[in-house]
Amino acid sequence: MVKKNRNPVSSNPESKVKVGLSLTSASADRLNSIARKLGISRSELLERLAQGALNISQDKAEVTVTWKKEGNSAAEIADSPGETVSENEIDAPPTAQTRPSDAGTEPNPLQESYKALQQQLAERESSISSLEQQLAEKENLESQLQEMVTKSSYESLQEQLSETESAIASLQQELLEKDSSIASLQQQLAEKENLESQLQETVSKSSYDSLQQELSDKESSLASLQQELSDKESLLASLQHQLSEKESLLASLQHQLSEKESSIGSLQHQLSEKESSIGSLQHQLVSQKQNLEQQLQHTVSKSSYETLQQQLAEKSSAIYQLQVQLTKLPDLENQLSKSQGKQQNYDALQQQCQEQQRTIKALREQLAQMQSVASIGEACLNKWRRRF
Q1: Contact 339, 190 (CB under 8 A)
Q2: Hey, what long-range contacts does 48-53 have (CB within 8 A, 24 or more apart)?
Q3: Could you give the CA distance from residue 375 to residue 318 in angstroms, rounded to a whole number?
Q4: 7, 60, 68, 270: which sits with the fewest CB atoms below 10 Å from its CB?
Q5: 56 and 75 in contact (C-beta within 8 Å)?
Q6: What is the pLDDT of residues 148-205, one digit of tens each?
Q7: How many CB atoms neighbour CB 75 within 10 A?
Q8: What is the pTM of this model?
């Protein structure tokens, strides 16, 4: 609450008088906030409040301040989390009725930032959880593939992959060496240009033109080597990408082949069991039929005859079921032929691996040609140095 001023007031209404105030930190902050919103100083704000020229109102949870300029009555201020301030005309009468302000409460940017950060954190945690789940599924799939693929095929594929990776590493090493050689040639060309700048005043025009021509040839050769190197690097990256795709496809085909082989083995086992069961039932049927014929030659009772008839019907039903199962044999043979097609796809993948090895061999030959060109460039530089 604002304390009353005990200092004497000058008779001149335009003169300024210092007023001592004791406010809490919260009240001081609110006073500063109101002054900033109105765009005036704290002194001017207090002076307008004292003159009754301001109307501060609040809706719902906002502050409502009513100033009455009647005698020495103090202003009533209700505490609230936010303020809404509106400025009336300075010359308004002291007893004028106050009106509510139309200004709205500003949103809290810190709270909005905190909510946004919480949402981002939740999204990051969800992404991390999804990635961890994908990694676990990948590791589980790799362990299953290693168990399903036969040991000899797995070792053969591992050996091929190791050889391919070794060849790629060798090519990368050769490319690094070529980069170093090109850098050396560039340094030598820079030295040559420096030497040319020093010899321009002493050599003849024909010699200078000859050197310029050699320099142009060297720069053209260097640009060609750099272009070839860039092409080889692009080709190497493409081969690495194709190799990774082939490895993934090969793993998928091996998994499918293993499942088909397991299914075929199970079906073949069931087929052999059914054939054995059919043979046994046929043998039992013949034996029982012979026994029935022998028994029918003599007089039998009605109950024995009915029992034999029931057994014969059961055996006939069993034979019919076995015949139905035998009709499914073409489907089993069709599945077996499809599994053989998977084996052909596996052979095609092996052929693609061999083609990639041939491509790597061709790349090595091209690198050897690049080495020859670099050697010719170095020989030309040495010849030029001996001339000068």
Answers
A1: no
A2: 48/87, 48/90, 49/75, 51/90, 51/94, 52/92, 52/94, 52/96, 53/87, 53/88, 53/89, 53/90, 53/91, 53/92
A3: 86
A4: 60
A5: no
A6: 656 666 677 778 778 877 878 877 787 788 777 777 777 887 887 787 777 665 656 6
A7: 15
A8: 0.23
